[in-house]
Amino acid sequence: MREVSLIMKKQLVHIKGTKEGLVLRLDDQCAYAELVEELERKVSEGGIDSKVDVQLYLGYRYCTSEQMTELIQIVQGPGKMLVSNVHSEVITVEECNHRMLENQCDTYVGIVRSGQVLKAEGDIIVIGDVNPNGRIEAGGNIYILGNLKGMVHAGVNGKENVIIAASHFLPTHVMIADQIEVMSNEQPMVLKNAEQLFAYINSDGKISYNRLQDFRNIRPLLTTSKGGS
Amino acid sequence: MGEAIVITSGKGGVGKTTTTANLGTALALQGKRVCLVDTDIGLRNLDLVLGLDNRIIYDLVDVIEGRCKIHQALVKDKRVDDKLYLLPAAQTTDKNAVNPEQMKNLIDELKREYDYVLIDCPAGIEQGYKNAVAGADRAIVVTTPEISAVRDADRIIGLLEQEEIEPPKLIINRIRKGLMNSGETLDINEITTHLSIDLLGIVIDSEDVISSSNKGEPIVMDPNSKASLGYRNIARRILGESVPLMSLEDEHKGVFKKLISIFSK
Q1: Name one GO cellular component term (chain B) (predicted).
Q2: Per-residue pLDDT averaged across B24-30, rounded?
Q3: pLDDT by residue (tens digit) across A116-143?
C-alpha cells in the first residue's frame, strides 16, 4: 500500500530555482487534466513574495496553442509569476515542413518579366534578370545572378536579418521586412556603381547598400560551408 | 498542315495590324498560301489596311456561331493571285462573343488548308489576347523603340512563355534611324538584351507606310520602300532563309565622308 501511494505521489510539476528565475518542469507522461490540476495546486501554494520570471519546460508533451495559453494563464493566475519562455521538445509535422521550407533555397532559371511575381518561402536564387515591374518576394534572402531592375522584397514574414544581392543592382523598389525604399537619386552609392551590390538592414534599422566584398563582414553568420583554407 | 503565328504586342498602336497585313502579303508574294485572321472583334481594321473592307459579307463570329461556312467568310485578295485570304473580325459584337476553345478549333481547321495562318491580336492582355493566342503555334511580338512599348512587350513575352508555344520572336517596328543613332531612343541592342528573345527583324519608320495603309495597299507591294524591305526580309526569315540584318548607317553620306569611314576601319 505504501509503495502504491509513493508512485502516486510522483511529482507532476517540478519547481526549481535558477539565476533567471523559476523553472517549472512539467511531467510529459501523465494525463493533461491531471497535470492541470497539479499545476493549479502548486501555483496557488504561495510562498513567493515578489514577482518572478518563470520558464515552462513541457518535455515531450505536445500542447496545442489553446493548451499552451491555458497553462500560461494558470501559472500567471495568482499574479506573482510571469512566464518568460516555454520550451518544448516536439513540434508538429506541419510546423516542421514549414520550417524546412523557410530554410530551403529555391532556384529559378529564367527572366522575371513585367507583371510576374516570383514567391519563395525561404531563400531564392534567380539565374536571369528581373525586369522592370517584375517582383520577387521571399521569406529569406534573395540572390540574383543577373540584372535586377524590378522590385524585390526579402523577409516578407518580418525577418530582418536578410539580404538582397545582385550582380547588377538597379532595382526600382527595395523592401526588407516591413521597410521599403524607392530607388531614386538619393542613392549615390547605388547609382555610381551598380555592379555586385547588396542591400541589408544596418544596425540603425535602415536599409543600406554595400559592395558584395563587404558581405562577409556584415553577415558573417550566413556562411554555411566550411573550408577554403 | 500549315503553321499558325500570332502577332501581338500588348501595347496598342505599335503596328500589329500593319505588320500582319505586310507579312501576310510578303509570304503570299513568295508563293505561300496565307490566311490572315483578325481577332480584334469590335474594332476590326485589318480589312481596311488590306483594302478589302467593302467585300466583307460574313465574319469570324458568323463562322464560329455556325451561320456560314469558313470559305464563305474568307475574303480573297485579288492582287496576289489565289494566295492571300482574310477572315475578318465582327464589328457588331465584342471579344466575349468567342472563347479560346472555339478559336483553336477554327485555327486548326484553317491550318489544314493554308501554309501560314497569321493571327492579328488585339491590344491588351484580356479575353481578346487569350482568344488570339489559343490556336497559335508560334508568336511574334511587335514593339517600337519606345520605353512604354518595350515594357508592354516584356509583359506579353512573360505571358507567352506560360503558353505551350515556341519561344516568341521579336520585331522592332518604326525605327527612326536619326533618333536611334543619336541615342534619343533605345537602340536595337538594348531592346534585345532587355527582352532577351530572338530578333526576327527590324522595320524602318517611313511615311509611305501611313499613306499606303490609308490607300489599302500594303507597303510590301512597293519594292522601293525601306519599310517594305524590312517586311520582305522578315518574311524570308519566317520561311527559314538567313538574311542579314539591315544596316542603320546613314546613306546620305558625302563621298568624302565615305572615304574617311573606309580608311578609319
Answers
A1: cytoplasmic side of plasma membrane
A2: 95
A3: 999 999 999 999 999 999 999 999 999 9
Chains A, B: CB contacts under 8 A, how many? 26
A126 lies within 8 A of chain B by CB: no
Q: Where in chain A is the domain with CATH 2.160.20.70?
A: 99-222
Alpha carbons B64 and A224: distance in angstroms, whole number: 61
CATH superfamily label, A2-87: Cell-division inhibitor MinC, N-terminal domain (3.30.750.50)
Complex ipTM, two decimals? 0.79
Residues of chain A with CATH 3.30.750.50: 2-87
CATH 2.160.20.70 describes domain A99-222: yes
Owning domain of residue B33? 3-263
Q: Which residues contact A137 (CB under 8 A, 6 or more apart)?
A: A117, A118, A119, A120, A153, A156
Interface test with A, best of B148, B155, B160, B198 (most A CBs within 10 A): B155
Q: B159 to chain A: which residues are within 8 Å by CB?
A: 115
Closest CA–CA distance from residue B257 to any residue of chain A (Å): 37
Output the CA–CA distances (angstroms, integers) from residue B26 to B13, B21, B35, in the order listed.
21, 9, 12
Would an 8 Å CB–CB cutoff place B154 in contact with chain A?
Answer: yes
Indicate the number of domains in chain B.
1
A116 touches chain B (CB under 8 A): yes
Domain with residue B148: its CATH number is 3.40.50.300
Q: Look up residue B249 and give its three cell numbers.
A: 548607317
* Residue A26 near residue A59, CB atoms below 8 Å: yes
**CB B152 to CB A114 under 8 A?**
yes
Q: What is the mean pLDDT of residues B79-96?
A: 91
Distance CA A97, CA A94 (A): 5
Binding site as annotated, residues of B: 11-18
A116 → closest Cβ in B151, B158, B194: B158
**pLDDT tens track for A139-184:** 999 999 999 999 999 999 999 999 999 999 999 999 999 999 888 7
